[in-house]
TrEMBL record:
Name this protein carries in UniProt: Luciferase family oxidoreductase group 1
Native source organism of the sequence: Cellulomonas humilata
NCBIfam families reported for this sequence: oxido_grp_1
PANTHER family, A to Z: LUCIFERASE-LIKE MONOOXYGENASE (PTHR30137:SF6)
InterPro entries: Bact_Lucif_Oxidored, CmoO-like, Luciferase-like_dom, Luciferase-like_sf
Domain Luciferase-like: 15-339
Any single Pfam family the record assigns to this protein: Bac_luciferase
């Protein structure tokens, strides 16, 4: 397949915790993955924020990013994302201003609206229910931008944010992105003139609508003259389709737990996943995984790259971010290396 629109490739990681692993093991695996992405020529490496989830070790993006930036050489590091309702705006701005001061030109601040946690955990993080609603989110984004020295014309920050700055003497600022899986976030990112990353890997079925909503809502800003859209996809590659499907089993068990309200434990092995999936009603399981595949692209590297290229063509994305759930980090590293080796060399260069 001829690649019509080569775009930069990036990585999103949640620091998945597998059965028998500690959080330290999972974070060490994320570090190894970031180094592999750096060596393979990926543009960005983002880490997520989730709380009270036994399968996820990435709870504090700012802390983890400081470690990853010191452990890599040139790749941009960022949050995918910081869940803004969980934190005071000044805390977020100061953390990422400090990261930018330590690693200038390498830091992204991806901001999300969902809490990434259950309501009780979200309230404990914020210490109050105030600021947890969607209505507060646009104003809080504007305040973070103002605290980082990025005022938007016609968008006044709060009086407090207008009088403060996140760092005493800033020489550069992190690149701010809005993240989302809804039309709300797409339209807000467009109206603010910010780059937007759509969580296509959530498999909501609204990717094309969100891309269109973002572009229709876009207004030029001091940040961007034109829209900049990134889409994410869950990807796992292996030497054969059968092996890829087998290795993707743990992600399907996780998807089943998330969508059916079952307790979400650590990532199970492919062997245990196969046994659990084989015990399901085959007709019901086929219908469920057709709608919620777990891993969207699980195949050989050549076919995976063709599918990713088709996703770029459908969405008109300016960047592509890949993520994946697997039992071991070797599978995730192999996926990154094999995809990068087949992506256009003028975009990804090891």
């Amino acid at each position: 397949m001829t690649r019509r629109n080569p775009v930069p490739l990036s990585v999103l990681d949640t620091s998945p915790v597998a059965v028998g692993q500690t959080s330290g093991d999972a974070l060490a695996a994320t570090t190894a993955l970031a180094r592999a992405a750096d060596a393979a020529g990926y543009a960005r490496f983002w880490v997520a924020e989730h709380h009270a989830m036994p399968a996820v070790a990435s709870t504090s993006p700012g802390v983890l990013l400081a470690h990853l930036a010191a452990s890599t050489d040139r790749i941009r590091l960022g949050s995918g994302g910081v869940m803004l309702p969980n934190h005071p705006t000044l805390v977020v701005a100061e953390q990422f201003a400090m990261l930018e001061a330590l690693h200038p030109g390498r830091i992204d601040l991806g901001i999300g609206r969902a809490p990434g946690a259950d309501p009780m955990t979200a309230a404990a993080l914020r210490r109050t229910v105030e600021g947890l609603g969607a209505d507060d989110f646009p104003a809080e984004v504007i305040d973070v931008l103002a605290l980082l020295g990025q005022d938007l014309p016609g968008r006044a920050p709060s009086l407090r944010a207008s009088r403060l700055s996140a760092t005493p003497v800033a020489t550069s600022s992190p690149q701010v992105w809005l993240l989302g899986s809804s039309l709300f976030s797409a339209e807000l990112a467009g109206s603010l003139g910010l780059p937007f990353s759509y969580a296509h890997h959530f498999n909501t079925g609204h990717t094309l609508q969100a891309a269109d909503a973002y572009r229709r809502a876009f207004r030029p800003s001091p940040v961007l003259d034109e829209p900049r859209l990134m889409v994410s996809a869950s990807v796992l590659v292996a030497d054969s389709d059968d092996e890829a499907q087998y290795l993707a089993g743990p992600s399907r068990v996780m998807a089943l737990s998330l969508r059916t309200g079952r307790p979400l434990g650590p990532i199970v092995s492919p062997e245990d996943a196969a046994r659990e999936l084989d015990a399901l009603d085959p007709v019901a399981a086929a219908d469920f995984f057709a709608r919620v595949p777990g891993t969207q692209v699980a195949t050989t590297a050549d076919r995976a790259v063709d599918e990713l290229d088709a996703l770029v063509a459908r969405t008109g994305a300016d960047e592509l971010m890949i993520t994946g759930t697997a039992f071991d980090v070797a599978t995730r590293v192999h996926t990154l290396e094999q995809v990068a080796a087949r992506w256009p060399s003028d975009v990804v260069a090891a």
